[in-house]
Amino acid sequence: VQLVESGGGLVQPGGSLRLSCTASGFTFGYYAIGWFCQVPGQEREGVSSASSKDGITFIKDSVKGRFTTARDNAKNTVYLQMNSLEPEDTAVYYCAAGWSGTITTTNWWKINEYDYWGQGAQVTVSS
């Protein structure tokens, strides 16, 4: 099982980045793919999740209108599009896979709902 994040980097405030998470080693179509962020000294926090069911997506309230997530099942890839980035968005972003049958609107942000994790991608928003 492997989840590989890409697309991180340094961007100026107001800029955009698109993170990609490419999965292998499991049946992608059965799993929701979540994005989490973590800064040093703080807990990992759910940002979004893209279910494999009917295109359902979840986004953390504080980034709605700026972040979106989408999956391309043909490529086993999920994207996190981040626009209007702010310095407070600086973090390591992780993608994770969890069984779609159990991830819902009430638990998509919970770390223990996800079974597989990527290595993380650094996003730095700074002028």
> What's the helix-strand series?
EEEEEEEEEEE
In oligomeric terms, what are we looking at? single chain
General form = globular
The helix fraction, in percent, is: under 10%
Main beta-sheet annotation: 7 strands, mixed
Intertermini distance: 37 Å
Structural features, described:
- This protein is an all-beta fold and 127 residues long.
- The chain has no helices and eleven strands.
- 0% of the residues lie in helices and 48% in strands.
- The model has no long low-confidence stretch (mean pLDDT 96).
Give a brief outline of the structure.
The chain has 127 residues and is mainly β. The chain is built from no helices and 11 strands.
Characteristics:
7-stranded mixed sheet; 4-stranded antiparallel sheet; 127 residues; mainly beta
How does the SSE layout of this entry go?
Elements: E1 2-6, E2 9-11, E3 17-24, E4 31-38, E5 45-50, E6 57-59, E7 67-72, E8 77-82, E9 91-99, E10 116-117, E11 121-125
Parallel strand pairs: 2-11
Antiparallel strand pairs: 1-3, 3-8, 4-5, 4-9, 5-6, 7-8, 9-10, 9-11
